[in-house]
Specification:
alpha/beta; two-stranded antiparallel sheet; Rossmann fold; globular
């Protein structure tokens, strides 16, 4: 991620091995690329179960790493509204990063409602700080740096949050919900919260393509969708009808994670235009028949 950002700124086991050991290593299954944790457990336990099945947070976070988490903290809505990321899920991701040896964990968001209100009412600032992270409100232009998007079809450049550009590990942690402009908010859509001028995307000739274009330049190392409670109407802010799938969906292919999550809303990935656009750019798998997952 750091190399990609710098390019944009130009703009952006050890020890003796025996044959038996080699054979055992060859037959050991690799961690899955997508995991779904469910089963009536609290959000924190779902997060921990999903990450354990993925190979553990240490698969992604090395000792001494600087980690940035993009939660959905955009709205002045209370926990339980499904408008923002569940605080318990966020706290557990932070704890897992710390246990893996991260030397710094930041949670970032460019809130839609004033950040001073949104971060307090959602309880995400308090939660992040108690769990050992710093909450960063991305309110100022000085917090961003330019990034080029050479593969973009509509979006050719953007102002990216410097904290994201400089992170060793970038984790995307959206809540799953409906959206009046993009059908759904999942992982790719959540990345609009690390750009300075998202209104320019809304005013462009194709918001969906902008979302897909941006994903060619900014790719999280780990995507975790909070589907413990989802918003079914009046999104993205609410209040609206909610449902309780009680799931955490985590994986290394951001598009596959989003594509899998569409089923929570009785949709197909092909009904979400920015997912179709992302697939056309080769950003991951979209076909449900080709997305293999494991339960945790």
């Amino acid at each position: 991620m750091k190399r990609a950002a710098l390019a944009g700124v130009a703009l952006y086991g050890l020890g003796r091995r025996f044959p038996l050991d080699i054979a055992a290593a060859a037959t050991k299954a690799a961690p899955p690329s997508l995991v779904v944790a469910s089963g009536g457990r609290p959000p924190a336990k779902l997060v921990r179960a999903a990450l354990a099945k993925l190979g553990g947070m240490s698969r992604f976070v090395r000792r001494g790493a600087r980690v940035v988490i993009k939660a959905n903290a955009g709205w002045a809505m209370p926990p339980g509204s499904a408008s923002n990321t569940n605080p318990e899920a966020l706290a557990e991701v932070i704890r897992l990063c710390r246990e893996a040896g991260a030397r710094q964990v930041k949670v970032v968001e460019h809130s839609c409602d004033p950040s001073s209100v949104a971060l307090e009412i959602s309880r995400l600032r308090e939660t992040a700080e108690r769990a050992g992270a710093q909450m960063i409100a991305l309110d100022k232009a000085a917090q961003y740096q330019p990034v080029s998007i050479p593969r973009g079809r509509v979006l050719r450049s953007a102002a990216l949050a410097r904290d994201v550009a400089e992170a060793d590990v970038f984790i995307n942690l959206p809540v799953a919900k409906v959206h009046s402009g993009t059908v759904l908010t999942l992982g790719l859509k959540n990345l609009m919260g690390v750009v300075l001028d998202r209104q320019a995307w809304h005013a462009s000739r194709d918001l969906h393509q902008c979302i897909a274009d941006f994903a060619t330049a900014v790719r999280p190392k780990l995507s975790i969708i909070d589907a413990t409670r989802i918003l079914l109407s009046n999104g993205p802010k609410g209040p609206g009808r909610t449902a309780d799938p009680g799931q955490i969906i985590a994986g290394t292919d951001p598009l596959a994670v989003d594509a899998y999550a569409t089923r929570l809303f009785h949709l197909t990935p092909q009904q979400v235009p920015h997912l179709v656009a992302a697939h056309a750019l080769g950003l991951g798998e979209i076909d449900p028949a080709k997305i293999s997952f494991q339960n945790a």
